[in-house]
Amino acid sequence: MNVKTYDQNQYLMFPPHLSEFLSDDHQSVIINDIVDTMDLGCFYTKISSEGSQAYHPKMMFKILAYAYSTGIFSSRKIHKALQESVAFIFLAAWQKPDFRTISDFRKNNLSEFATLFNQLVDMCKRLGMTSLGQFAIDGSKFKANAADSATYNKKRISDAISNLLQKADQVDRQEDQLYGTDNAGDQIPDDIRQKKSRLQKLKQIKKQMDQSNKEKINATDPDAAFMKTTRGIKTSYNAQIIVDEAQQVIVAANVTNDPSDTGQLVPMVQQAEKAVGRIDKLSADSGYSSGDNLCAMVEKGIDAHIPDANYQATQRGKQDTPGQGLFTRSDFKRDELNDCFICPAGENLHFVRLQKVKNKHPVRIYRCQTCGACPLKKRCTKGRSGRSIILNVHDAQFKAMRTKLDSPHGKRIYAKRKWIVEPVFGHIKETIGFRQFSLRGLDKVIGEFFLICIAHNLRKIINVFKNTALQRTI
User: Fold this and answer.
1) Is the Cα dihedral 324, 326, 328, 334 positive or negative?
2) What are phi and psi of 306, to 5 degrees?
3) Which of 181, 207, 376, 456 sits a CA distance of 20 to 30 A from 447?
């Protein structure tokens, strides 16, 4: 037959080098070159001089970085890839650490991943992949490694403890009948022992809840919290990133178990400025809006574009039903002299009370008392007690921000936010495939998220090398 020779038993005089099976621009080859240039001293200081030899940290980090950048997060799947994938075999140089070794390396070096993340951000900066232009911040919820059904509130814990105590009392009476009141009954069935151990676990959960002052707590991962996600209320963590507009490089990252984004703005900005220098422009959605945050951005000299929730809701209302929505705050005139607001019908909204807001400055409440017979009521309020307006202590800052966002320049700047930061979370969840943390506990979750951000930034560097044929001389 006129075919090429096919012989699986053929020997080679000189064994091939593994890199010959991979192209120069293969993702694993570029990651290998990048890691070779990094300072991995943070790993080496932890290696013991006694006992059996450890796998080389450089090799372990290479296979973890490549695994996460290709959507492989399970230590068992990584171990399997080390036996089947040429790219993994190349990075590991034929070595095959078992899944437990891989898992332990990841678990024991979580703080080191933050250090290496900062190194990669600096590398991106020196490669010209970051600029002093516009940055955007956003948060996204990621599922915790915990079952939602394992979440307890105080009532559920109390009921469960009460039920188990009742069952324990019944078991004691049954044991007395079976073994006698003086017999310890060493042959107690396993299910009875399990109920007693479950009771101890519930009491431990109750103690953790009392100490943390939480309304709910998860038995599997007590640090996780119930959060609203696109897939419903789930036991989750809130991941935060700041992204540069030039190449969508993540320049700052963190994870919190607070569902709210408001308290994350200032520390995230501080982390980003430490990594890349002064930030010129920053955009964020209404979740980051607060008077204190707006003041903090002004103090830092950052041109921020952050709408408040009422402004954002108003803009959406205008898009959905132009000219048909309720009167907005801007339709009411402020009368400083008489300390009131004047509605579109010419009626006054007078000050009625101060209202305390948790962890925030008190607000002033103004309400109209003549809404009942007003012909414009349907366009003003649906409330029975009349239209009210809340005056924040930072009202001037919110007003200035709305004016900025309403300007043509402000609209252009804020419109960029969607394609700067939102696609990055899309890339992490859809392309890389990371939707749920593998580890448990806030500190461990933060370390794992830094590993994900390393994988994202590595892919960005690889794209630059491929698209610009840039020499890999870092």
Assistant:
1) positive
2) -135, 105
3) 207
Instruction: Supply the range of the domain harboring residue 55.
Output: 18-108
Q: d(Cα 290, Cα 394) in Å, to the nearest integer?
A: 8
Q: For residue 420, give the amino acid letter.
A: I
| Tens-digit pLDDT profile for residues 14-32 | 667 777 888 888 999 999 9
Predicted TM-score (pTM) of this structure: 0.80
57 and 79 fall within a common domain: yes
Residue 191 belongs to a domain: yes
Cα angle 434, 436, 437 (rounded to 5 degrees) comes to 100
User: What is the C-alpha separation between 137 and 268, in angstroms, rounded?
Assistant: 8
The H-or-E segment that residue 58 falls in is: helix 57-69
- Map tokens 């349907």 to a residue: 378
* 353, β-bridge pairs: 365
Domain presence at residue 341: yes
CB atoms within 10 A of CB 109: 20
Residue 96, pLDDT above cutoff 90: yes
* In the block, residue with structure tokens 């409330």: 383
pLDDT in tens, 405-425: 999 999 999 999 999 999 999
Are 252 and 135 within 8 A, CB to CB?
no
Provide φ and ψ at 141, rounded to 5°: -90, 135
The answer to whether residue 471 scores a pLDDT higher than 80 is no
Q: What's the token pair of residue 114? A: 């933050």
Length of the chain: 474
pLDDT in tens, 269-282: 999 999 999 899 99
Number of domains in the chain: 4
Establish if 429 belongs to a structural domain. yes
DSSP 8-state code for residue 316: H
Q: Any idea what the Cα angle at residue 38 is, between residues 243 and 111, rounded to 5°?
A: 65
Q: How far apart are the first and last CA of the chain?
A: 52
Q: Are residues 236 and 296 in the same domain?
A: yes
HEC per residue, 110-142: HHHHHHHHHHHHHHHHHCCCCCCCEEEEEEEEE
Token readout for 115 is 């250090």
